[in-house]
Prior knowledge:
The chain is of the alpha/beta class and 368 residues long. The protein is built from twelve helices and eleven strands. The site of zinc ion has 6 residues, from loops. It comes from Tieghemostelium lacteum.
Amino acid sequence: xxxxxxxxxxxxxxxxxxxxxxxxxxxxxxxxxxxxxxxxxxxxxxxxxxxxxxxxxxxxxxxxxxxxxxxxxxxxxxxxxxxxxxxxxxxxxxxxxxxxxxxxxxxxxxxxxxxxxxxxxxxxxxxxxxxxxxxxxxxxxxxxxxxxxxxxxxxxxxxxxxxxxxxxxxxxxxxxxxxxxxxxxxxxxxxxxxxxxxxxxxxxxxxxxxxxxxxxxxxxxxxxxxxxxxxxxxxxxxxxxxxxxxxxxxxxxxxxxxxxxxxxxxxxxxxxxxxxxxxxxxxxxxxxxxxxxxxxxxxxxxxxxxxxxxxxxxxxxxxxxxxxxxxxxxxxxxxxxxxxxxxxxxxxxxxxxxxxxxxxxxxxxxxx
Length: 368
Ligand SMILES: [Zn+2]
């Protein structure tokens, strides 16, 4: 019997693309008062435009602004806010370098409010493309780390969490209303939580916080919301690679009621176990985007190896329930120059080509 089945494997990037060196120089000059706001805005606009054009050239059907405007995936809502200060909790990466999470100021005038909402980035990117736009936002669990270990006098932790849940909801909702095709929640601290507390209690608290935000959205909205999990990516090193993906992390994450997951995968050594763990825990309404390019490794994957990774996944996960992505953003922090833009776009190009190759083979197989 003649059949004509045609499936498509969706493929998307996570968010950040390395900023051009000139943009970073301009950001530093602007901080030192050496260039005007107009000059700074122009540099941002050029960089967003170039990023979107290059993503289109690679064949991306959904684009991001490459987070060119974000100081980092974590700090964008509170950058420049008088409610927060630098140097809160320190996160140590595998090469020994550290990044610190901001901390609430003891002089905060409640309630806690975001200074910047991610919707702004969608509006900017929209000037340069008609393609669907994907936007990442920071998770409520990462934001919970802002509250200091010693209570603030006029602002209890409980009240802060209430205010923050509202702000995170608002950030996501505004992106959905601005027409984002997908809003992904960056949840890198999920894996870190298991490193800091192997018992799983901290992760449980993080999952509960995310669940509290997500229950505020309708089933239709949840289809457009995704979660990204990874062991970190900064200066080509990770903060929690040693944590076992399958023991608690994947089963806990997959309980969250979102429609899409963007999971680091290419850098893992026990891929088979991970695929099996996902196939055991996946629910029918979920789509899993597997990372097929390792953002912490300068080697550019070949389309053939990406094809083979996806064909292995196809053996265990229904075709309509998986896609491909990069393991993480290429530069979650604006000043990370460890990966060049050229390497990032070459990896994206390989991902799209490799995904197409897998798709052709699967379509042939389905029509046999
Ligand atoms: Zn990541």
